[in-house]
Design goal:
mainly alpha; 2 domains; three-stranded antiparallel beta sheet; two-stranded antiparallel sheet; 12 helices; 5 strands; about 60% helix; globular; binds zinc ion
Length: about 290
């Protein structure tokens, strides 16, 4: 393999960049890439809030509506699809929560898109939300306290403050609702997180696998756990009332994400306004002192 170092230049600052033969030339240096992502945090969040955030809910609701009309085997496939949307909605919410908490030192887009839900992060999220009082959750997300919204965000109109207050209130309710699904949901979530081959690995019967049979109205996803040298079986019951509850949880998670983004975008807006005012007064000062 040719290991000669090749040279290209950063698209943004023009600094020379070296890379190895056979590798793709990097578009920009690491510092410029960090800045490139960071100045797009707000745009990324508003575009995600506009459409992407609701994709799990849309698929889950559509599957639940279709399920009512389907034959038993098809109902099982749709039920498992709803469970997958639940896992992915949770993955989105946990990833977003972490990315927004870390936004002072890591670009939101990077932390969010790189996030991968696993057993540890799923259980830690459930515990953190369950055990942390609302005001402290807001502190961790760097969102102003509800009693202090007008004081912290003076550029917002009275109506905007009222809307934001409602959004923050609803966000805290929805976060609680998410973890109130309880330990069982958290464990199923932890188990399914990272197991993405569910479509191919759906099974009607698990007797052949672990000598624990499924009931006629159950369906299971199987996945190999190499670390424990076992095969995980996650079974769910095709019960419309329970699936409805799951869709309700997806709805709550989606709304929590949307309201969290709304609150953070309000903070960004305030920060931009403050920066703009500072620049303007600086320019004015320079003008009056004639410098
Ligand atoms: Zn650069």
């Amino acid at each position: 393999m040719d290991q000669r170092a090749l040279e290209s230049v950063c698209r943004d600052c023009g600094r020379p960049l070296s890379f190895h033969a056979g590798e793709t030339a990097p578009a920009r240096c690491a510092d410029c890439f960090e800045g490139f992502l960071r100045i797009r945090d707000a745009e990324f969040l508003s575009s995600y809030a506009e459409l992407g955030v609701a994709s799990r809910r849309i698929l889950a609701e559509t599957s639940l509506r279709a399920l009512v009309m389907e034959s038993p085997p098809h109902r099982k496939v749709l039920a498992m699809h709803i469970m997958e949307q639940y896992v992915q909605a949770a993955s989105d919410l946990v990833g977003l929560y972490g990315a927004l908490q870390a936004r002072a030192h890591t670009p939101v887009m990077r932390a969010f898109l790189a996030f991968h839900l696993d057993r540890t992060s799923a259980l830690a999220f459930f515990r953190e939300i369950r055990e942390t009082p609302g005001p402290e959750l807001l502190d961790r997300l760097n969102i102003p306290q509800q009693a202090d919204l007008a004081g912290s965000l003076p550029s917002l109109s009275k109506k905007d403050i009222k809307d934001l207050d409602r959004a923050v209130h609803q966000m805290l309710i929805d976060l609680r609702k998410t973890v109130d699904m309880g330990e069982t949901a958290a464990l199923a979530l932890a188990q399914m997180a990272g197991e993405r081959r569910t479509g191919a690995a759906l099974t009607n019967q698990s007797q052949w696998l672990d000598s624990v049979g499924l009931r006629a109205d159950q369906v299971a996803a199987i996945a190999i756990d190499e670390r424990r040298r076992t095969v995980n079986v996650t079974a769910i019951t095709v019960d419309e009332a329970r699936l409805q509850t799951m869709v309700g949880a997806i709805d709550a998670m989606t709304r929590a994400s949307q309201n969290m983004i709304y609150a953070v975008l309000s903070v960004y807006q305030e920060e931009d306004r403050a920066k703009e005012l500072a620049t303007r007064s600086h320019t004015r000062k320079r003008a009056t002192t004639g410098r």
